[in-house]
Amino acid sequence: MVDGSFGAYLGAPLAPFANVGACREQDQWNKKELVSRLEHTPMYFPDLSEDVLDRLAAYMELLAQWNERINLVSRKDVERLELHHILHSLSIARYIKFAPGSRVLDVGTGGGLPGIPLAILHPDANFLLVDRVGKKVRAVQEIADRIGLKNVRAEQMHAKDAPGPFDFVVSRAVTRLPEFISWVKQNIQTEQKNTLPNGILYLKGGDVDEEIRQQAWKSRIYPLNEQFKEEWFETKKLVHLFP
What we know:
By secondary structure, the chain is an alpha/beta fold. Helix content is 29%, strand content 17%. Strands 3-2-1-4-5-7-6 form a seven-stranded mixed sheet. Helix 3 runs antiparallel to helix 5 (115-121) and helix 4 packs across helix 5 (115-121). It is globular, with a radius of gyration of 17 Å.
């Protein structure tokens, strides 16, 4: 882990849950049962507070429920939501703890990934989640409201139109890196408040060397298999790009 212990901020207070029992029509939300589905996350983030685990589990449940109506994530991944989506998103937090007051833009958020898991871990940072598909944006805002995230706003827009500046732009492989940079380069905050230089944190699989050579920003590549032992992470990387 690049940025040290999570103990100083993972217990930070969040807004209360908004009527968690209402998330199911026929029975009460069994938090203990939901949290028990988080098989991998507590192992890699042992300092997470009970409240944070509750919210991550609630998000995973709501994401699965919404995915039955709207294609927020691949249907074949529904049984692997934690590993392929929650933990993948949280991998960014193995390298940086967003400072209080940081502004983070999530581009092509889909079902709220990686923005919502990161927002749960960083209640003192502000997250704007954007997608060009309106029904996805409405679902994401509903999910964030249900689990009491006051630091998340979802908007239907292109990344180029996001009202910046932002300390970081996060995303999960929505396009090639040179094109992505062209969308957000004008929206990177120049004033620094975090341990990593302001810029892009991009989750991507496979070989990224060619795409990096095609753009002019500085770059650092973090292979996720150095942090996570599961085979699925073998080819996954976090690419940090900054001016």
